[in-house]
Amino acid sequence: MIQLSKILCPTDYSRTSDKAVRYAIELARKVGAHVRFLHIMQPENIAEKTAYSYGISKKVGKADVISDEFRKLLMDEKKKGLSADILILRGNPYDAIIEQSTAWGADLLVMGSHGRSGLNRILMGSVAEAVFHAVDVPVLLVKQDAANKAIKDFS
User: Fold this and answer.
1) Pick among 3.90.25.10, 3.40.50.620, 3.40.1350.10, 3.40.50.300: CATH of 6-148
2) 42, 62, 96, 138: most buried, per Cβ within 10 A?
3) What gap in Å lies between CA 98 and CA 131, rounded to an integer?
4) Is pLDDT of 62 > 50?
5) Are 144 and 17 spatial neighbours (Cβ–Cβ below 8 Å)?
6) Cβ atoms within 10 A of the Cβ of 100, count?
7) Which residues of 138-151 are buried (b: 16+ CB within 10 A; e: fewer)?
8) What is the mean pLDDT of residues 80-94?
9) Is the torsion defined by CA of 81, 139, 116, 41 positive or negative?
């Protein structure tokens, strides 16, 4: 039997990421799971980049980096009974998502995907695709264009 009790949802507060966040909220509500939203900030200066290259990851405070829109959404959903928290780390998104998935024991990852293809995908890369291939838990990729229909169908 499939047991979903921990859903990890990386977010960068983009439109694509917002679609995945909303999908994760609805899915968690339907199955009674806890959602951990994960925001990863890139290293900002040479000292932090050097430290990061040696495997030193710095956790930072929440107040500096949570968008007002996301904060409001999260508070509203928690008032409605959603079990959720947010973890903010500084580092490489690919590494941080994989590390947190394992360390926290996530049952499912819900991530937004831009749906890029061709040369644009080769040049820009895809964190979602790389994570999909690297983790050992199911990954739900929410395409920006498909998310509206999926969320409506969930209601």
Assistant:
1) 3.40.50.620
2) 96
3) 7
4) no
5) no
6) 19
7) ebbbbebeebeebb
8) 93
9) positive
Q: CA–CA separation, 38 vs 9, rounded Å? A: 6
Instruction: For the chain, give every domain's residue range.
Output: 6-148
Pairing state of beta strands 34-41 and 83-90?
parallel
Residue 121 has pLDDT above 50, yes or no: no
DSSP class per residue in the chain: -----EEEEE--SSHHHHHHHHHHHHHHHHHT-EEEEEEEEPP-SHHHHHHHHTT--EE--STTT--HHHHHHHHHHHHTT-EEEEEEEES-HHHHHHHHHHHHT-SEEEEEE----HHHHHHH--HHHHHHHH-SS-EEEEEHHHHHHHHHHH-
Tell whether the model's pLDDT for residue 8 goes beyond 50.
Answer: yes
pLDDT at 117: 56
Q: What is the mean pLDDT of residues 26-55?
A: 80
